[in-house]
Write a structure and sequence with these properties.
single chain; alpha/beta; Rossmann fold; Dihydrodipicolinate Reductase, domain 2; 7-stranded mixed sheet; binds NADPH dihydro-nicotinamide-adenine-dinucleotide phosphate; binds the ligand N[C@@H](CC=O)C(=O)O
Length: 376
């Protein structure tokens, strides 16, 4: 039996769903000769680790209780009485993560799975890469900070997977990497890469107000923890930047012009997330509806589009024919068209659910399984 030890960073919507997928795939993985050993889980403040982390794991009943505790909004510290585990609070937790990585990284192997939405994980991720660990990311921030950080995380390209950073569980990164490694030049990528904005736009077309559909997108698990990351275009910009960097562009987030659906006066330094969802969005309802109706009167719809071509990498709102590939999108679906030498007239098209905890966590799990050959 091959064992893959892992540490989960972030146990929100995606992280908890990943733990559930791991538990429900136990018999499937057993048949494949695989066991995923969850050594530790951390959130923004604490880390809970199997007391004997060299040999033991946090078992499925413990992890199920952990999910219940986090869903209820409590601290991981609450789990301290539950048995053979230790809880460390920030900043001691960082030291403990490195200690585990230095013991397991080069012996049994270890995967750090980043399902947080934070830039704070970058420091640890860069260090554990040097200690021999693999990394699997749903979090886009580590790949969208500086070029230096990006290159550091790719020091050992076979030890990093990040499929869910673009298109949730859709095989976007894997397909792009296959194209690149076959020497087929990528000329152009065009896509609609926000599940939230796709859902929001198609619901607005049905006459529903922005305030209502953004709240619905949040409760369906489509949005970022702060939905302004989606509505402001930042989340799409991050995805575009990841794709552009994979294609070899040495650019940063501030090289992209980003169009926002909300004004600066509703930014995170002015309003809390709850304030924005409550009062801020109501103030935007009318203008956004007018914009959607104007597009509709021209036979068009609004889509938040990403275009990468040559040294160009742009994201923004476009008015597109209802009957175009992007215009036909409904709900949280993403679509990505990749034009290459082999796919020149007819692009390679990847389409499907582009957001949601279930599909995102499934993408993360598939990434972990994909690196099994690196484990003894
Ligand atoms: N939902 C989706 O459809 C998709 C999401 N993603 C990405 O998945 C990630 C997770 O999203 P989601 O689950 O919705 O987010 P949530 O806000 O639900 O959860 C984030 C979790 O990360 C934890 N966290 C915050 N800072 C740190 C840190 N420094 N170290 C470890 N953990 C930390 C939070 O801790 P605490 O509980 O203490 O706040 C929380 O448990 C995001 O990066 C998102 O962009 C990617 C593709 C699709
Ligand atoms: N908030 C994102 C989730 C996936 O990255 C989206 O809406 O697409």
């Amino acid at each position: 039996m091959k064992t893959i030890p892992l540490i989960l960073m972030g146990c929100g919507g995606v992280g908890r769903q990943l733990l559930q997928h791991i538990a429900s795939c136990r018999s499937l993985h057993f048949k494949q000769g695989l066991h995923l050993r969850v050594v530790g889980v951390c959130d923004s403040r604490s880390l809970v680790v199997a007391a004997d982390f060299l040999n033991k794991e946090l078992d499925d009943s413990f992890l199920s209780e952990l999910c219940r505790v986090k869903l209820g909004g409590s601290s991981l510290a609450k789990l301290a009485d539950l048995g053979e585990c230790q809880v460390f609070v920030h900043p001691e937790s960082q030291g403990k993560l490195l200690e585990i990585a230095s013991h397991l990284g080069k012996s049994t192997g270890l995967v750090f799975v980043d399902c947080s939405a934070s830039s704070d994980t970058i420091v640890v991720l860069k260090q554990v890469v040097d200690l021999g660990s693999c990394i699997v990311l749903a979090n886009k921030k580590p790949l969208t900070s500086t070029m230096e950080d990006f290159e550091k995380l790719f020091t050992h390209p076979r030890r990093i997977r990040h499929e869910s950073t673009v298109g949730a569980g859709l095989p976007v990164i894997a397909s792009l990497n296959r194209i690149i490694s076959s020497g087929d030049p990528v000329h152009r990528i065009v896509g609609s890469l926000s599940g939230t904005l796709g859902f929001v736009m198609s619901e607005l077309e049905d006459g529903k107000p922005l305030s209502q559909v953004v709240r619905a997108a949040k409760s369906l698990g489509y949005t970022e923890p702060d939905p302004r990351d989606d509505l402001g275009g930042m989340d799409v910009a991050r995805k575009a930047l990841i794709l552009a960097r994979i294609l070899g562009q040495q650019i940063n987030l501030n090289d992209l012009k980003i169009e926002s659906l909300y004004p600066e006066e509703m930014g995170s330094s002015v309003m809390t997330v709850d304030d924005f969802l409550g009062r801020g969005l109501l103030l935007l309802d009318k203008d956004v509806q007018k914009r959607v109706e104007k597009a509709s009167s021209n036979g068009n719809v609004l889509r938040y589009v990403c275009v990468i071509e040559g040294s160009r990498c742009e994201v923004g709102i476009q008015e597109l024919p209802k009957n175009s590939a992007l215009g036909r999108l409904r709900g949280s679906d993403n679509v990505l068209e990749i034009y290459t030498r082999c796919y020149s007239e007819q692009p390679l098209v990847i389409q499907g659910a582009g957001a949601g905890n279930d599909t995102t966590a499934a993408g993360v799990l598939a990434d972990i399984i994909d690196i099994q050959d690196l484990f003894p």
